[in-house]
Design goal:
This protein is an alpha/beta fold and 207 residues long. Helix content is 24%, strand content 21%. The strands form two sheets. It has a seven-stranded mixed β-sheet with strand order 1-3-2-4-5-8-9, with helices on one face. It has a two-stranded parallel ribbon with strand order 6-7. β8, α5 and β9 form a beta-alpha-beta unit. The radius of gyration is 16 Å and the shape is globular.
Length: 207
């Protein structure tokens, strides 16, 4: 796993800790401004998480897509958990891959077998794909390996730990089933957007 500071603001003691989804790259989120510090976790080649967040007094957790599952598993025993005051999930669930509470295992395995980056982009962005023309993606072979890693990670010791304060769901999501979010959470905030809904925001502080 990699980390990258999308924003560093020395005058702020607040941090937004963001877990990206599958294939996420920091170039995908440059249009979002913030008066706080924003640290992104992405690139799930492995799931080693070592963060020193002692300098921050308050943390907002935002997780997107399969990043919701990753955060649910990795944040259970971190020493900064008490600093997390707000948790926001976007188009994802704690289990990530599940017949009722995530992407169906059969669908996920089919995606691994037949993965195409261009088809994935079309599904991810839909009619907003032109807005993503400068986004960086890894090579198709590397992304397929990332999918395999997420499959193994999500299916190991499945347990729902994090309780989210706010959950966004895209009305036009063709990746994560709406039914999985409805089965996982009591209340959803719907956005008229595809799975990648971040073009409908211009600042992290607005989530």
């Amino acid at each position: 796993m990699k980390t990258y500071f999308l924003h560093k603001n020395e005058n702020s003691k607040e941090l937004i800790l963001f877990f990206g989804g599958f294939a996420s790259h920091f170039s995908h989120f440059r249009h979002l401004s913030s008066k706080k510090n924003v640290l992104m976790c992405y690139d799930y080649e492995d799931f080693n998480l070592t963060l020193n967040l002692n300098s921050f007094e308050k943390i907002t957790l935002i997780a997107f897509s399969m990043g919701v599952c990753v955060a649910n598993k990795l944040l259970r025993n971190v020493n900064f958990y008490s600093k997390i005051k707000l948790k926001i999930a976007i188009n994802g669930s704690n289990l990530g891959i599940d017949k009722k509470l995530g992407i169906h295992p059969r669908v996920f395995l089919k995606t691994i077998k037949k993965f195409s980056l261009e088809n994935f982009k079309k599904t991810l962005f839909k009619e907003e794909i032109n807005l993503a023309k400068d986004f960086v993606f890894k090579q198709e072979k590397e992304l397929k390996k990332e999918l395999e890693n997420l499959w193994n990670f999500a299916n190991k010791e499945q347990e729902s730990f994090l309780v989210w304060d706010k959950i966004y769901a895209s009305k036009n999501d063709a990746i994560f089933p709406t039914s999985a979010l409805e089965n996982s959470f009591k209340t959803l905030d719907f956005i008229d957007a595809p799975h990648f809904l971040f073009f409908h925001f211009n600042a992290w502080d607005l989530f």
